[in-house]
Write a structure and sequence with these properties.
Layout (H helix, E strand, L loop, with lengths): L5 E9 L5 H20 L3 E7 L6 H6 L2 H12 L2 E6 L19 H5 L6 H11 L2 H4 L2 E6 L9 H4 L7 H17 L2 E4 L2 E5 L5 E4 L2 H18 L9 H17 L6 H12 L6 E4 L6 H15 L4 E6 L9 H16 L9 H18 L2 E6 L26 E5 L3 H7 L6 E4 L5 H13 L13 H6 L7 H12 L7 H7 L4 H15 L2 H13 L4 E2 H7 L10 H11 L13 E2 L4 H11 L3 H19 L12 H13 L3 H8 L2 H11 L1 H9 L7 H6 L1 H16 L1 H7 L19 H22 L1
Parallel strand pairs: 1-2, 1-3, 3-4, 4-5, 8-11, 8-12, 9-10, 10-11
Antiparallel strand pairs: 6-7, 13-14
Helix pairs in contact: 1-9, 3-5, 10-12, 11-12, 13-14, 16-18, 18-20, 20-21, 20-24, 21-24, 25-26, 28-29, 29-31, 31-33
Length: 742
């Protein structure tokens, strides 16, 4: 499996008005170099500067402090502080939510600037973080050359502010690495901004200090987590999230345990209405059973939780890898789906012969249509002795396929929550944020909420509680509860309306449309580059941080490896986004084309088909978005581009390339592919040739030579890669000649 990429985030703290030059130098020179160094270790660098793209006046009007503190948490342990002679804006009150994570802020001495509070949170209050926090103090000597009317931007706000800054710098020097740097006056820009020059030494200090810290945190010789560990982290994070507030339904958990303790040869299927809590039930059952049966290997798999887990091939490979890892099952796990489908029951049998196993698979209905996965022809009709399997699905094709089996599986139907369970979910959810609903007869806010038609489902209640949590007018809470829609789709639609009011509607629509059309989510840096405005390299972090904070509850957990993929946690929200923003085929194609153009630039930044971007996700996602964007001509050219084939096999292996060719034959491209008559046969021939040689290409580790007839195998190297490359080259040449004759 290819080594996964991880994400490194760095928070930059500074005062507003006097640090434009330093922040610009970091963005233009330091972070590009640092990003290149990180990429060689398969690390995505994300620099978070919340001063960029927002004015001090805008910050004073917004809830800037809680956003900044949340971003510092996401960036730990890396923190950069830039200080000149200004202490920064001091808010009249810290104004953070009444939630446990902000208790220290409410108890903190008043009168500190936003910048100072950031520094205390990012470094000074946390000794463990201090050695990963770096501070840079600017020498004020340059001010002698700055015209008097422009010096005010750099001077202390008051004697009191100057004294506070002096004490802050002294405390920083005592606990953290701190550097002095000089600069020079370079003139005035047309917009009145002072130009500072001579920042190269400053930039080098930041670059080397950060790189040293990152290298210690992610050493080159360290074996990075493999794909199996990354996938496992996603499932473990999801399990933790779903079991944290599980309430009631003990009878169902006990019934599932009784099934697992028995000797039924067929799976147990758990079903129920959307939002009824199937995933949480399976998660709590898997954890409880593992705790009470330490001799049983419990293998939970939550479809849709990790990138690619809706792909049946990747899901089966993960299950096989986990079984092989735990039981020491020898042999290779096939890449090809048909071989994998045949091998999966064999892995189950070998595992069962080595000990007791329980497999838990959640959300079969979320599988992609690829390989006809929802027919469930990959799922054994009869399970080996000693291997029970619990699966869940909504009503639909997966459940129909299970019910047609003979013998049919046992079924558990999740019934609505009891009144007591509903009340406890609301109380427990809101209590985490020190909030509660009135339950007195004369103002029964709880009763009004529980009277909603879908308040019998956990998802409705949890989303409703989140909407009430972020509602800021206490005296109008009763009216707000009354205005909540009766069902979950309506509630999610209201969530989107709120986001549009609180943020720019076009920004919300653009971001969520792209996420809805992304195959397996998007990296945060990808999304910010995609939704940037004219003249920007990416959307300003300050703008994104506010929107992210509003969306974070609805995104899935990132996993312990911090891979940084953004994707919807609740499929019903994804459906609401599609209905609101990409309801038509053309609207969806527009988003897919934006994604295709973006991933093409990332994978082939120079252009001309050299594919030298060192960006595996570009190679991974391009063909998918060309296909679903209706770009048949572009897709055909990509899949007959030998440089693309070589780059993709080298970066990702042969199987993902093989599957790209199936995209040319999706129903929405049928008419276009008929027009490109010669390409259809060519693509099938190339796909077949790669499939026949996939085992050789996977072992070679060097991809396919660009000019196979001019590249001979090295001594001791298999002839396979060179021979199959020659075959591929001949197939392409043959079909190119055919096209030219037509």
């Amino acid at each position: 499996m290819p080594t996964p990429w991880r994400t490194v985030r760095v928070f930059i703290s500074s005062t507003f008005r006097d640090m434009h030059a330093e922040r610009d130098h970091l963005v233009r020179f330091v972070f590009p170099e640092l990003r290149d160094r990180c990429a060689k270790r398969r690390l995505h660098l994300v620099d978070v500067d919340l001063r960029w793209g927002v004015s001090e006046e805008e910050a004073e009007r917004g809830k800037v402090l809680e956003v900044c503190l949340d971003e510092i948490e996401r960036c730990r342990p890396f923190f950069i502080g830039l200080l000149g002679d200004r202490y920064g804006w001091v808010p009249p009150a810290y104004g953070v939510p009444d939630e446990p994570s902000y208790d220290w802020v409410r108890e903190f001495e008043p009168g500190h600037s936003i910048t100072a509070v950031e520094i205390y949170h990012g470094a000074l209050r946390n000794p463990a973080m201090a050695q990963r926090a770096f501070f840079y103090f600017r020498d004020p000597a340059f001010l002698r050359d700055v015209p008097a009317e422009y010096r005010v931007v750099f001077l202390p706000e008051s004697p009191d502010a100057a004294e506070k800054l002096r004490r802050l710098k002294a405390e920083i020097r005592q606990h953290c690495p701190a550097f002095e740097y000089a600069c020079a006056y370079g003139g005035i820009r047309d917009d009145g901004t002072v130009i500072l020059t001579g920042l190269d030494v400053f930039g080098s200090q930041v670059l080397e200090a950060l790189w040293s810290a990152i290298s210690q945190e992610y050493p080159e010789e360290e074996i990075p987590p493999d794909e199996l560990a990354v996938q496992r982290a996603y499932h473990e994070a999801f399990n933790e999230n779903r079991t944290r507030r599980f309430i009631g339904r003990r009878n169902l958990v006990e019934g599932m345990a009784a099934y697992a303790d028995g000797d039924s040869p067929v799976p147990l299927v758990v079903t129920g209405a959307p939002g009824c809590g199937k995933s949480a039930l399976l998660a709590i059952f898997a954890r409880a059973y593992a705790n009470t049966h330490p001799d049983v290997f419990v293998l939970p798999h939550f479809i849709g939780v990790s990138p690619g887990s809706t792909d049946i091939r990747r899901s089966l490979r993960r299950l096989c890898h986990e079984l092989a890892h735990h039981f020491g099952i020898p042999g290779e796990i096939p890449e090809d789906y048909e071989k994998l489908r045949t091998a999966f029951p064999q892995f189950l049998e070998q595992a069962a012969s080595g000990g007791k196993v329980l497999v838990v698979m959640d959300a079969l209905d979320q599988l992609d249509e690829t390989h006809r996965a929802r027919t469930l022809d990959w799922l054994p009709r009869m399970l080996p002795p000693g291997l029970p399997m619990v699966v869940s699905t909504l009503e639909g094709d997966c459940l129909d396929a299970l019910r047609r089996r003979r013998p049919p599986p046992a079924e558990f139907l999740i019934t609505p929550l009891t009144s007591t369970e509903r009340r406890e979910i609301v109380r427990q959810t809101l209590s985490e944020y020190r909030k509660r609903l009135d339950e007195r007869p004369d103002n029964d806010q709880m009763g009004v909420l529980l009277s909603k038609r879908q308040a019998e489902t956990p998802l409705y209640l949890i989303v409703a509680c989140e909407e009430l949590r972020v509602f800021g007018e206490f005296e109008l809470v009763t009216e707000r509860i009354a205005s909540l829609p009766d069902d979950t789709p309506g509630l999610f639609s209201q969530v989107l309306e709120r986001l549009e009011r609180e943020h720019d509607r076009e920004l919300v629509q653009s971001a969520l449309s792209l996420l809805a059309c992304a195959r397996h989510g998007l990296l945060e840096t990808e999304l910010l580059e995609l939704i940037r405005r004219e003249g920007e390299e990416q959307l300003p972090r300050a703008t994104w941080a506010r929107l992210y904070r509003s969306l974070q509850f609805y995104f899935r957990p990132p996993g312990e490896t911090g891979e940084g993929i953004l994707d919807f946690f609740h499929q019903q929200l994804a459906q609401a986004v599609r209905q609101r923003y990409v309801a038509t085929d053309e609207a969806a194609r527009v988003s897919h084309r934006r994604l295709a153009a973006y991933f093409r630039r990332k994978a082939d930044p120079v252009g001309g088909g050299r594919w030298e971007g060192n960006y595996p996700r570009g190679l991974s996602e391009l063909a998918h978005h060309q296909a679903y964007g209706g770009l048949a001509d572009d897709l055909a050219k990509t899949l007959t581009d030998f440089h693309f084939m070589e780059a993709k096999v080298f970066a990702l292996g042969a199987q993902p390339l093989i599957e790209d060719y199936d995209l040319a034959f999706i129903p929405s491209l049928a008419a276009s592919m008929r027009r490109l008559e010669g390409y259809g046969k060519s693509l099938r021939l190339i796909q077949g040739a790669i499939r026949l040689s996939s085992h050789v290409l996977s072992r070679s580790g060097t991809g396919m030579p660009v000019q196979p007839q001019a590249r001979l195998p090295l001594e001791g190297q298999s002839e396979g890669p060179a021979l199959i490359s020659k075959l591929l080259w001949e197939v392409i040449c043959l079909n190119t000649a055919t096209e030219l004759r037509q």
